[in-house]
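The instructor's notes for this session suggest beginning with a concrete chain rather than abstract definitions. Hand out the sequence below and ask the class to guess, before any prediction is shown, which regions might be ordered.
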Amino acid sequence: GTFDTTTGSSGINAEYGEAPPKPVPHTIESLRPSDVTTVDAEDEEVLKDTQMDDFASYFNCETPPKVLITTNKKSSLGTRKFVDELVNVIPNSEYAKRGKVDMKCLVKQSIDNGFTDIIVVNEDMKKPNSIIVSHLPEGPTATFRLTSVTLKKQLTRHGSAPSHRPEVILNNFSTRLGHSVGRMMGSLFHYDPQFRGRNCVTFHNQRDFIFFRRHRYVFKNNVRVGLQELGPRFTLKLRRLQRGTF
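After discussion, reveal the predicted structure:
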């Protein structure tokens, strides 16, 4: 038989004494063709865009977010329960009962009262099925399909959410469109998280679906750290991103 002088018979790198790197497992995600619209966050053109977009004042820590959350005109109990949890997730948010107010009027009132964003939860068959996020005063406005809603009480061993401002994790928003959506999601939360609350919210983008989770760090000892889910869970899929508000 032959003897590999590079790795030796054991497969260990003879020069450095290190094992060869493990091959990347073949999964649906790893075998998926790369997206030609993927951009580098440090790309000069991307950085220039972010300095001039509608969220620049937020990411420059100039304008703290103030979010109004409401529903369609005749919301069900299930939708209102989901909205209650959204208000708990976003500490700098307030709920406003929609009543008979149309959206154009609500947008104007919100701008006059210093709100930076409006979130509208719509429903079908008494279940929340879409979310509209509009950045004030001039947009953009995003419409998402909402699925897989799981409220906090439906989760086993869920934790109690602290009132501290959470850390925000935006994962895999790597295309130009994804970059814009990620900045919109991030700007709903205060740019100065209170780390002592040990809680974080995660928006994970995968195959055009955005998975939302909320966790709390649990320090088991000086070495081990665990995660306890706080809820809610839900999944978003972007339907439309447009300039302006309603």
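Then share the key points. The longest strand covers residues 209-219. The CA atoms of residues 57 and 138 lie 13 Å apart.
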